[in-house]
Amino acid sequence: MDILGTSLRVCVGDLDAAIGVYERLTGAEAIRFQRGGVAVAAVGCFFLMSGPEAELSVLRKITATLAVKDVDEAVADLTAVGADIIAGPLPTPIGRNLVARHPDGSVFEYVDRKQDQDGGQRVG
Question: Which superkingdom does the taxonomy of this entry point to (predicted)?
Answer without folding.
Answer: Bacteria
